[in-house]
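Let us practice reading a record.
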Amino acid sequence: MPNDTKDLILNAAEALFAEHGFGSTSLRKITTKAGVNLASVNYHFGSKEALINAVFERRIVPMNQQRIERLKGLQEDYSGRSIPLEVLIETFIGPAMALAADQGKGGAVFIRLLGRSYTEPSATLQQAIRGLYGPVIERFKLAFSQVLPELPPEEIYWRMHFMVGLLAYMMAGTDMMRLIASCQVCDPLDIPATVKRLSVFLSAGMGAPQRGGEIESR
C-alpha cells in the first residue's frame, strides 16, 4: 500500500535523523532502513528537504490541532467569562507532554529530533517549523492577552517564551527529574499529574504582577 510505504520512510527518517542528524543521514540510509527503493522517496516527497519537513509536520500538526480544538472548547465553555489561567496553560502544554510520552507517535525519538533542529540549525527547517507553530501560537497569544489584560504584548511574549522553554525541558528532562527525586518521590511518567503540577507552577509566573520599571532599569 502507498501509505504503508510512506509511513515506513517517515519512521526510518525520523529515527535516523534523531540519531545521526540531518546532514549525516543520506536518503540511501533511509531507504535501506525502511526497506524501500530510492524512487519511493522521490515519489512521495521529492527531496530530502521535503522529507525532513514532512517528518516534523506528521507530529506537530496533529498536536497543534488538538491544542486549537481544546482552546475552542474552553472558549465555548467560558463564553462571557475569563478562562482560568491554570486551565489555559494546561490546554497548551497537555498535548505536547502527551506526545512526548506516546511511543506510538514518536515519543522520545521525536523529542530527540526536535533537539536536532536546534543543534543543527537550518534556515529552511526553522522557517518550516515556525510555519507549523505560527497559527497556534497566535491563537494562544490572544487567549493569554485576554486572560491577562493588565500585561502588555511584549510581556505576554516573554512569559510565553519562558513557558515554552520549560515545556521543552519537561518533555525531554526525565533523567534530571529522577535525579532530583532520588527515584522515589516523583513519577515523571505520570503525565496527567505532571501536567497539573507544571500548570500550577507556570500560572504563578505567567500571572505575576509586572515589574517593568525594575526590569528596564537593569
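A brief commentary: The CA atoms of residues 155 and 210 lie 8 Å apart.
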